[in-house]
Structure to design on (390 residues):
């Protein structure tokens, strides 16, 4: 940061010390998907349910954050439960506080509702957004400065009725520049193997292939799958087993050469340490909503890095708001990162975005916003149209 910007930020910090949060607003939304999303657990869904938190301040500035009511393995949240927790249990600890008291606020929210990471995520991210806007700097400056300007995303191939449909989706991503593919598996062993084989044969050795069962398989089925897809050079197998079966994951890791990735079974730092101590995975995926936003995800990345794990930046299908959260965290991260599904929503999964200035996407690369805060602004007309009456 150059000298004039430092002086401007210092002046803004002085003004910001008097700013107080006056209202916590929750905005429940239902955003259509371009096609129904099917994974190994649960029925196909035609839309994603989101809650946007908007923090209002005494000076008129607002901060925004995003979470999802995912309702699958690792999430029991609904739009109603998220809004009630945030408004009834978190808001009393937020209103009247400075946006810079993020440690105090996040600690109070954590104590107010146990294991409430899906609800805490948009609060913490909205606080970072506010801090950046008050200081006139992007969030990555609050996290240590910019190390990278863009972050690569992967193609997520959801379960389709036929091999042809799966390969058609993969070809579309490949034509746009994607070279990393996550194949959803777990319902039909022969179809899973055919999909993996088809992608390897179609795109050759340069394609990076991972599989993901979203915690929907049993041990025997997972072991059979891994043995059958081993010839196709699989980079990682993500969360094949249920959340509780960390010992089963460790046994899979011992029996096969394919690296195991953890996702749904890691909500917090204790979960990740459990996986590390059991040697149950060597790759970890974090998600904004699942892991409590920037405030908690950064800690997980440090723990994973110390354990020698590869980091796979992820998200549920989401808008530019949660995508920006990951982009800023990645921008300030000095270590290597895999091309992850953090941008799946804005790269084709959602029919529309909810901001006036969507993140810039070039091929598989997402540009990190340089505007103050998270760098995105809500589109009020879209919000009005997609809002769910509670």
């Amino acid at each position: 940061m150059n000298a004039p910007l430092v002086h401007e930020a210092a002046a803004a910090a002085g003004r910001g010390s008097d700013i107080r949060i006056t209202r916590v607003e929750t905005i429940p939304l239902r955003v259509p998907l371009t096609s129904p999303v099917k994974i190994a657990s649960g029925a196909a869904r035609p839309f994603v349910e989101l809650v946007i938190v908007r923090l209002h301040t005494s000076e008129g500035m607002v901060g925004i954050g995003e979470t999802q009511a995912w309702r699958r393995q690792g999430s029991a949240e609904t739009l109603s439960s998220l809004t009630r927790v945030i408004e009834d249990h978190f808001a009393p600890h937020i209103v009247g506080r400075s946006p810079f008291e993020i440690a105090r606020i996040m600690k109070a929210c954590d104590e107010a509702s146990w294991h409430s990471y899906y609800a805490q995520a948009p609060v913490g991210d909205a606080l970072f957004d506010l801090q950046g806007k008050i200081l006139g700097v992007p969030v990555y400056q609050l996290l240590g400065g910019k190390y990278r300007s863009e972050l690569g995303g992967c193609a997520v191939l959801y379960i389709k009725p036929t091999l042809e449909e799966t390969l058609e989706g993969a070809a579309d991503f490949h034509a746009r520049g994607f070279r990393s593919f996550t194949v959803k598996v777990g319902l039909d062993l022969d179809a899973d193997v055919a999909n993996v084989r088809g992608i390897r044969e179609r795109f050759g050795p340069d394609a990076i292939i991972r599989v993901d069962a979203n915690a929907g398989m049993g041990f025997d089925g997972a072991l059979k799958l891994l043995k059958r897809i081993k010839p196709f050079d699989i980079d990682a197998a993500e969360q094949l087993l249920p959340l509780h079966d960390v010992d089963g994951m460790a046994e899979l890791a011992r029996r096969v050469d394919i690296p195991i990735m953890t996702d749904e079974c890691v909500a917090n730092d204790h979960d990740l340490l459990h996986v590390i101590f059991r040697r149950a995975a060597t790759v970890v995926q974090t998600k904004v909503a699942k892991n409590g936003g920037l405030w908690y995800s950064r800690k997980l990345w440090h723990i994973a890095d110390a354990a020698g794990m590869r980091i796979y930046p992820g998200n549920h299908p989401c808008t530019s708001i949660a995508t920006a959260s990951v982009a800023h965290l990645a921008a300030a991260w000095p270590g290597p990162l895999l091309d992850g599904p953090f941008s799946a929503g804005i790269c084709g999964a959602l029919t529309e975005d909810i901001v006036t200035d969507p993140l810039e996407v070039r091929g598989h690369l997402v540009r990190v916003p340089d505007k103050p805060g998270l760098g995105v602004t809500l589109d009020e007309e879209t919000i009005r149209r997609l809002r769910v009456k509670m």
In short: The first helix runs from residue 3 to 16. The longest strand covers residues 21-37. The radius of gyration is 20 Å. The domain at 3-138 is CATH 3.30.390.10 (Enolase-like; domain 1).
